[in-house]
Amino acid sequence: MTTDVHLYRRSLSSCLLFLLGSAFSCQSPRTPEAAPPAPATRFTAVPAAESGVDFVNALQEDDTFNLVDFYYVYNGGGVAVGDLNNDGLPDLFFTGNRVPNRLYLNQGDFRFKDITASAGIQPGGWSTGATMVDLNGDGLLDLYVCRSGNYPAAQRTNQLYLNQGDLTFREVAASWGLADTTHTNQAAFFDYDRDGDLDAYLMTSTNAIRNPNKLTPLKEDGTGLSVDKLLRNDGGTFVDVSHAAGIRHDGFGLGLAVCDLNGDGWEDVWVSNDFLANDHLYVNNQDGTFTESAKAYFRHHAHFAMGNDVGDVNNDGLPDALVVDMLPSDPVDQKKMAGPVNPHQFETMVRAGYHPQYMRNMFYLNLGHNGPRPVFAEIGQQLGLHQTDWSWAPLWVDVDLDGWQDLLITNGYLRDITDMDFIVHNSQVASSGDVETTNRVMREGATQQASIPRQNRLFRNQRGERFEDQSAALGMAPSFSNGAAYADLDGDGDPDLIINNLNAPATLLRNTTTSAAFLKVQLAGPPQNTKGLGSEVTIYTDGMPQTRHVAVTRGYQSSVDYTLLFGLGDHAGVDSLVVRWPDGRWEVQKHVPVNQTLTVRYEDSRTEPYASSSPPVPQWQEVAAARGLTYVHQEEFYMDYDVEPLLPHKLSEQGPCLAVGDVNGDGREDLFVGGSYRHAGTLFLQEAAGTFRSRALDPAPDKQEEDVDAALFDADGDGDLDLYIVGGSNEFPDGSPYFQDRLYMNDGRGNFRLDRNRLPEIRHSGGCVAVADVDHDGDLDLFRGGRLVPLAFPQPGVSALLVNQGGTFTEQTDSLAPGLSRVGMVTDACWADVDGDGWDDLVVVGEYMPLTIYRNDRGRLQPMDAATRRETNGLWNCVAAADVDGDGDLDLLAGNLGLNTRYQCSPQQPMSVYGGDFDGNGRWDAIPAYYEDGQEYPTPPLFDLVRQIPVFKKRYQRFDSYAQTTLPELLAPVRNQVRSVARAYEQRSGWFENQGDRRFVFHPFPAAAQRAPVNDLLLTTSERDSSAELWLIGNDHSVEPVEGQHDGGVGLLLRGDGTGQWEPVPPRQSGFWVEGVGRRVAPVATPQGPLLIVVQNQGPLRAFARTEPPDPSYALEP
Fold first, then answer.
1. pLDDT class of 1114 with cuts at 50, 70, 90
2. Model confidence over 756-781: pLDDT tens digits?
3. How many CB atoms lie under 10 A from the CB of residue 434?
4. SS (H, E, C) 152-215
5. Could you tell me which of 231, 224, 216, 230 has the C-alpha nearest to residue 252?
6. Local confidence band at 949 (pLDDT 50, 70, 90 cut-offs)
7. How much is the average pLDDT of 676-704?
8. Under 8 Å between Cβ of 252 and 205
9. CA dist., res. 734 & res. 784, Å (int)
10. Do residues 189 and 533 lie in contact, with contact meaning Cβ atoms separated by under 8 Å?
11. Which of 328, 460, 580, 1093 is close enough to 333 for a disulfide, judged by CB 3.0 to 4.6 Å?
12. Cα 883 to the chain's mean position, in Å?
């Protein structure tokens, strides 16, 4: 056993070295439009001497209970709240680890009486989660207590206390089949099979696996050491049906939520798991079984997932979800716990079936159904909820009664065991002594490690678009807080807070909100579910819904009160209230008065189907397979970080490209989709019926090029469309022949022949191509944007102006466009007459580039200085021109990185990359940097920095010294070696208003457009009302594995009003779903109406057609 412990400690160190990495966030100066002022809200701590709640979860560490022998030793206890004697006052139960549990009777006015002994609550054991539930249907709440600890199984027996009606309880877990002896962290009760009684879900962990972060084959057959349990209630006896029901996946559960995530009326189970184990979402199949669907619902997960909670955060009637992790809010602390990033191990993990996992809180916004399942966008970073320290219990609760659910998060961990200096020291100890000595030294070291009390966090919900940190309103000092619950303890209508702390008295926070209306709802359910668990209650005020799902197991190891609390602000009444019971019965009440407790009884409900409004038919539907557009883009595996460890993202996954045009002269539009290394590009030829047949452009098996952009245009003036393909990527050295662009000449019938003699030699990685008659000589010329210099990020790529001379192109950049060849790391460009002089000007955007415009002065290109202000430097991906505001000139629309990132930049506090050979080894180095409170700091973790630049290893022997080092201090000895500095000041996507006189003003798109990088956009006109329709696609899965993949985009339609204002159309209404990495979007005309074509990196081609009969004369015109 001691050897296993020794290995575990080493594995924890190696896991942190692998996955914790660095986590940085510089200040974001941008917030949405301020919400109306909230009613005055503050909390007053009620001291134990006044309340009588004197519970302290005091933890004594010894040779049995310590971090080495029991790694959940600091996880703390929970809280259960409920009205045990039906006097209208919620009572309190606290679980203790090495101290007895305590039960307190609410006597009113925040006065409580300890009735633990008289109630018959037994001492002993290590208690974890607790839930109040009426299991025997007598109308009285019973109490179920989960237990764990470094004890033999007999001392881990869960307990069921049946309420005797006289404030005494009888422990009957064994006779009920609920005396489980696994390491159980929490239980939830729900009627999963709709037979009327309450079944049980037990969330478990184990202390037997001493290496929980070791990459091992997934166990999904029920044979793992830590598989949760589903217990079916068979008339008062619980039977384990886990395996038959599909509950078979191994895990280390810390968060448990029973919810209806897919809205089918049947409750599902969401379990957030610690360590490397996948989170689990068991979707109810409505036949007594569940299907594990976490990966299908959530595109990435928290790595060290702890508590979770589910609630409708933006009042759209859909349940959203949040899980907390342990990412510090202080960037210094982030670097002190930042181990090395191992992208290969991360890739291996994902290929082995583990979900992508990142160490931060995750907030999943429910966007509605795409077919049979809902789609969630993880936008915790955009909302500022991603880094709240070592967090335990998240709870959605409307503390200020304004009608929007706020967020409470408890924090703190008794020992700072993630400090990298501590971990490195332990690793050295583990490799230098015998097992017994090593374990003794590590136990002593853990108990001597500094404590890290943290501020509990309270975030005020600003109408679902942003959260305001109001943690100071809690009035609490930093603590070690674990389980938490809420209830209206004093009957004044607002939620009070109850928190279980480690080594400190429990906290009772009186909510002093006085100026807002409320409605409290209590359900009187059927005989075997008297509290209505699993019901859904929705109230409507001025058309806005507030929805509550009746589930009391919430947050972390805790259960909240059964009374539902609705805040109503200054509303004088509720327009309507709808209750849906678990079996489908329902009730509607109209014009409900406020400031009351309303009881809704099951016996008064109706049995006929509830006539809810049907969701609108989506405006577009996916038709790729039906139209013969079956295509999946593929990439051969390449790891950029092997040669450039400090890159912020891969540069080798930029395809595929897309080009549209009639290539065979039959009057129908065809399309070309670019290929990649060892994968040929594909032509899709449209047939008379509007379907397509495909063929490879160049089926040679030894294809080397990466096709990153393409254009169909008449290069030689013979009346047909030729094909130009840009070669790019980061997989080859600069000067490689595989970067050479290719021009395929069309024979007029859609047969293409590669002609290598029509292009100059440009063997540099490309990013884009833009076509226009630059010199007005009647033929089409090209701008070829240079993307990058391999092994030299962030040096600008090599761009070129190619002039058409009789079908052959010559490079004339320096003579016709001085400075254009090194304009930047170009991602996109377009030609547009922005100054209205009749000559198309060149607009260029790129990574760490400003909006750059070259004015066309009768065939010569001159920089338009006023348009390239410092403030426009961004991480731009795409650009297009259109008259957005209807004033007659061309404005510019541009896609950027978005705001759903760990980095937030501004003109005052930019994101930067410094380049140069900092150690004189002849290899280019790139050091990303960020700002925090006016100081610039290096971004990379110390491990990664010294791997790239070993000279820094001598200067930084300890992580704490590096964590506080500013960028100027880091580079001071090598400042003369800085050869390149790239900066970004703007990361929002938006449009640039052309104000004439070469002046452009930036306007960001709405918040929904900032959830992910926008890689491409398309502006069309609606056939209904001629309004502007702007289609956005994006995401990026190539980001380094500490930051994590940017996948908050699902495709978005913005509808314009002609003045520059944009309104998001929810994807469930538009039907425009692009959940992968969308690279290019373009319209294609067909006899049945226009198609929207989207190509995705390492994903399928998507094609969308209108669901309504189209106007035959209508076409999607960019």
1. very low
2. 999 999 999 999 999 999 999 999 99
3. 10
4. CHHHHCCEEEEECCCCCEEECHHHHCCCCCCEEEEEEEECCCCCCCCEEEEEEECCCCCCCCCC
5. 224
6. very high
7. 93
8. yes
9. 16
10. yes
11. 328
12. 34
- For residue 460, give the amino acid letter: R
Residue 1035's DSSP bridge partners are none
Size (the chain), residues: 1118
Of 299, 987, 1078, 1007, the residue nearest 648 (C-alpha): 987
| Residue pair 779/717 in contact by the 8 Å Cβ criterion | yes
Strand, coil or helix: what is 374?
strand
With 0-12 / 13-18 / 19 or more C-beta atoms within 10 angstroms meaning exposed / middle / buried, residue 609 is: exposed
Torsion sign over Cα 1007, 1011, 1017, 1018: negative
Is the overall model pTM greater than 0.90, yes or no? Answer: yes
Residue 293 CB-density burial (10 A; 0-12 exposed, 13-18 middle, 19+ buried): middle
DSSP 272-334: EESTTSPPEEEEE-SSS-EEE-HHHH-SSEESS---EEEE-SSSSSS-EEEE-----SSHHHH
Measured CA to CA, the distance from residue 952 to residue 955 in angstroms comes to 5
Sign of CA dihedral 726, 729, 735, 738: negative
d(CA 895, CA 883): 17
Confidence of residue 19 (pLDDT cuts 50, 70, 90): very low
Tokens of 34: 């301020």
Which DSSP symbol is given to 975?
G
Q: What is the pLDDT of residue 28?
A: 36
Q: What is the DSSP letter of 1080?
A: E
CA distance 1059 to 1027: 11
Using the 8-state DSSP alphabet, how is residue 20 labeled?
A: I
Average pLDDT of the chain to the nearest whole number: 93
Residues 6+ apart with CB under 8 A from 110: 46, 50, 51, 489, 490, 508, 510
The three state secondary structure string of 78-103 is CEEEECCCCCCCCEEEECCCCCCCEE
Which pair of tokens denotes residue 629?
A: 């557009």
CATH numbers and ranges of domains, the chain: 31-325+360-414+451-524 (2.130.10.10), 620-905+985-1106 (2.130.10.10), 911-982 (no CATH)
Cα angle for residues 905, 906, 912 (degrees, 5° grid): 55
Question: Can you list the pairs that 784-787 forms with residues at least 24 positions away whose Cβ atoms lie under 8 Å?
Answer: 784/726, 784/741, 785/826, 785/827, 785/828, 785/829, 785/844, 785/846, 786/821, 786/822, 786/823, 786/825, 786/826, 787/651, 787/654, 787/708, 787/728, 787/825, 787/826, 787/827, 787/846
pLDDT value at 1 more than 60: no
H-run or E-run covering 131: strand 126-133
Burial of 555 (0-12, 13-18, 19+ CB in 10 A): buried
What three-state secondary structure class fits 344? Answer: helix
Looking at residue 1093, its amino acid is I
- Name residue 624's amino acid: A
Given a contact cutoff of 8 angstroms between Cβ atoms, the answer to whether 911 and 905 are in contact is: yes
> Half-sphere exposure (CA, 13 Å, Cβ side) for 839?
17
SS3 string, 1012-1023, reads CCEEEEEEEECC
What is the rounded distance in angstroms from the CA atom of residue 536 to the CA atom of residue 69? 43
Q: Which residues contact 287 (CB under 8 A, 6 or more apart)?
A: none
Q: For the CA atoms of 262, 1012, 331, 976, what is the dihedral angle to 10 degrees?
A: 160
Within a 10 A sphere around the Cβ of 530, how many other Cβ atoms? 22
**Residue (of 521, 535, 534) closest to 576 by Cα position:** 521
How open is the CA angle 543-544-547, to the nearest 5 degrees? Answer: 130
Element (H, E) at 271: strand 268-273
Q: What is the pLDDT of residue 37?
A: 52
